[in-house]
Write a structure and sequence with these properties.
By secondary structure, the protein is α+β, with helices and mostly antiparallel strands. The chain is built from 15 helices and 18 strands. β5 and β6 form a beta hairpin. It binds flavin-adenine dinucleotide.
């Protein structure tokens, strides 16, 4: 099979070694096999088109690979696929300081893009803990959220244009990059969040923003989750410009401090929940005032305002490091859900009861982008129970959690997508009619079902049809 590609790709662009292949095909979920026939690394869109066209003509299954930081097993393969990694397509093409846009290839690492845009005095606001490894193409394909969604929206809200390479190798140019364009259906939107099932994203044009001038980071200590939405409400009522509103339970806060001994809690006392809040506010007295008021009315127990950039970075690290810190405590089963912000309190109460009654032997880590109603629920096998027992318990708990989410009209996947991990749960969020329409859309773009097959939902068509 290597011969199909070796005429135009050099040895560094064709990976055959099984250890390297399994590193490339794995994401951060660990329950799945990560195999492939080959991994290919195109250096430009022409090579990508040639690879896709050869795969199409030979009915080879294709899995687009970004930074492999995904959390839904959307890049894993069974061994029959060709993995196509975008690592070498990593050029920033143009930064437009008048239009406030940036155009880049899909393999650019998010942090590198943030940096390049910042050097030109602008902000690319998409931000989350995987920024040092995840790619723009992966962020778009998962419609990633992150900590700044409250102010700037999801990735979808930041994408102005896309260049797509379809399964048969043809280019679909949707990279028109206009803010206003009501000329019929916006096909570009279909590729955002499609998890590589419709085609390859090869180029992206993104929206930038002015830099935040008066960034203030406040860390709150709270005794009970019921006060958390109330704090958000109080800040909003005072018209603060809120960029991020993140919450972590004591389990998460303690895990970070344990895993990073160089960090210290900003507080002397212990709290059940902590909130990291980022504001764009010139008047720091106004923030101190609101903190005092919230303390007097017992809504918060304590608050610290970062006094300089170094302190702000340390406070942010307390939140950003949660996921990695929890993984150090044992095998993790992660859920990423959302419910309406106004229902968070009741939902979390029901969730805690469920775990207290049925799963108390596991550690429960709850944290997330509370301002968007988004909770990450990590079940941790901290006692090192047998993997099989843990897996079965997690599967059972998933369905109980999803039923609860359905009751609260929430989503089983707020940010991370469906992949393989949530495939069987899609029906909790999408009707049969919707899923059937999605299958039809996939068939339109990918008639041979070659693009990341078996992810999100199953399409009943043999690749040889
Ligand atoms: C520590 C940590 C924190 C995280 N925090 C957040 C968070 O706050 N918010 C959030 O939304 N997510 C978060 N994530 C998960 C998030 O989905 C991924 O990190 C990221 O968006 C995926 O980008 P990636 O480049 O790693 O893609 P990959 O994992 O490589 O791929 C993800 C999917 O995109 C597809 N894909 C990748 N590149 C392309 C392309 N060029 N064209 C077509 N399809 C492609 C793949 O086939 C796959 O289906 C976090 C992950 C980690 C490990």
């Amino acid at each position: 099979m290597k011969n199909l590609f070796s005429g135009f790709l050099d040895a560094t662009q064709i990976l055959e070694d099984s250890t390297l292949i399994s590193q490339y095909m794995a994401d951060r979920t660990k329950h799945y096999k990560s195999l492939a026939k080959l991994v290919l690394l195109p250096q430009n869109v022409d090579e990508l088109c040639r690879i896709a066209s050869i795969c199409y003509n030979n009915s080879l299954l294709m899995i687009p690979l970004g930074g492999r930081t995904g959390l839904s097993a959307a890049t894993v393969g069974t061994g029959d696929e060709v993995g196509i990694a975008m690592d070498k397509m990593n050029k920033i093409i143009e930064i437009d300081e008048i239009g406030y846009t940036v155009e880049c290839e899909a393999g650019v690492i998010l942090e590198n893009l943030q940096q390049a845009v910042s050097e030109r005095g602008m902000l690319f606001p998409l931000d989350y803990a995987a920024k040092g490894s995840c790619q723009i193409g992966g962020s778009v394909s998962t419609n990633a959220g992150g900590i700044n969604v409250l102010k700037y929206g999801m990735t979808r809200d930041l994408v102005l244009g896309l260049e797509i390479v379809l399964a048969d190798g043809k280019i679909l140019n949707l990279n028109h990059a206009l803010i206003k364009d009501n000329s019929a259906y916006k096909l570009m939107q279909l590729f955002i969040g499609a998890e590589g099932t419709l085609g390859f994203i090869s180029k992206v044009t993104l929206k930038c923003y002015p830099q935040v001038k008066n960034r203030q980071i406040v860390y709150f200590g709270v005794k009970n989750f019921e006060f958390v939405p109330q704090i958000l409400q109080e800040l909003r009522q005072r018209s603060f410009d809120i960029i991020a509103f993140e919450c972590l339970s004591k389990v998460c806060h303690d895990a970070v401090l344990e895993s990073m001994p160089q960090l210290r809690s900003p507080f002397q006392s212990i709290h059940h929940y902590y909130i990291l809040c980022e504001l764009d506010e010139k008047n720091s007295d106004a923030i101190s005032e609101v903190c005092s008021e919230l303390m007097e009315s017992d809504i918060i127990q304590d608050a610290v305002i970062a006094q300089n950039d170094k302190e702000a970075t340390l406070f942010k690290l307390l939140r950003e490091a949660v996921s990695d810190a929890l993984y150090l405590k044992g095998e993790v089963h992660a859920n990423d859900i959302s419910v309406p912000v106004s229902s968070l309190k009741l939902f979390l109460n029901d969730l805690n009861n469920l775990f207290r009654n049925s799963y108390s032997k596991y550690l429960l880590g709850v944290f997330g982008h509370i301002g968007d109603g988004n909770l990450h629920i990590y079940i941790i096998n901290s006692n090192n129970e047998s993997g099989e027992i843990f897996k079965n318990a997690c599967l059972k708990s998933d369905h109980e959690i999803f039923a609860l989410i359905e009751q609260y009209r929430g989503s089983i996947s707020a940010e991370h997508g469906i992949g393989l991990l949530k495939k069987s749960a899609l029906r909790y969020r999408r009707s049969e009619t919707e899923i059937e329409l999605m299958r039809n859309i996939k068939q339109l773009f990918d008639p041979k079902n070659l693009m990341n097959p078996g992810k999100i939902f199953t399409v009943e068509i043999s690749p040889n049809d």
